[in-house]
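Technical annex, item 7. During the second reporting period the consortium partners agreed on a shared format for inverse folding records so that results from different sites could be compared directly. Each record opens with the tokenized structure and is followed by the designed sequence. A conforming record, contributed by the partner at site C, is shown below for reference.
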């Protein structure tokens, strides 16, 4: 081999190693960027669910009102009407399940307000908050939990 051929082979070898190092670096960067995006997405979904915890009791479609005075509670009489139109709220709720679970007194009932579960998901997260509900049947207030389940 001549000296010129050896220099050409050395140059090709150096370029090859730089390309291999660049590809591994790019894959490493891609993996960590993708994990960061997934983590940010989970944080965002949790943030949206926490916002819904405070938004749902103040929705005009569900909240209590008596003689133009508004009270911080959910009217159980309005839930059945809301369930009929709840599919129109996908932009607000997304893939979530919203449940009101009666806690006190005695005969606990679950009221599913909204339910849109994705076909395929890896895990489910749950967030809950205490809530006052009004039952127009017996004209009484009860203690409940507002539960939001979201899927990812």
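Designed sequence (site C submission):
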């Amino acid at each position: 081999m001549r000296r010129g051929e050896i220099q050409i082979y050395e140059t090709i070898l150096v370029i090859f190693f730089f390309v291999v190092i660049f590809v591994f670096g790019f894959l490493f960067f891609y993996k960590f960027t993708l994990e960061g995006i997934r983590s940010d997405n989970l944080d965002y979904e949790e943030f949206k669910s926490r916002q819904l915890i405070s938004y749902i009791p103040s929705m005009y479609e569900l909240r209590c009102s008596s003689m133009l005075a508004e009270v911080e509670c959910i009217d159980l009489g309005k839930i059945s009407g809301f369930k009929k139109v709840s599919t129109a709220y996908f932009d607000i709720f997304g893939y979530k399940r919203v449940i009101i679970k009666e806690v006190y007194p005695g005969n606990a009932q679950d009221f599913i307000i909204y339910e849109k579960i994705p076909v395929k998901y890896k895990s489910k997260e749950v967030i809950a908050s205490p809530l006052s509900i009004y039952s127009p049947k017996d004209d009484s207030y009860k203690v409940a939990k507002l539960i939001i389940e979201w899927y990812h």
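The first helix runs from residue 3 to 55. The chain is about 45% helix and 35% strand. All partners now use this format for quarterly exchanges.
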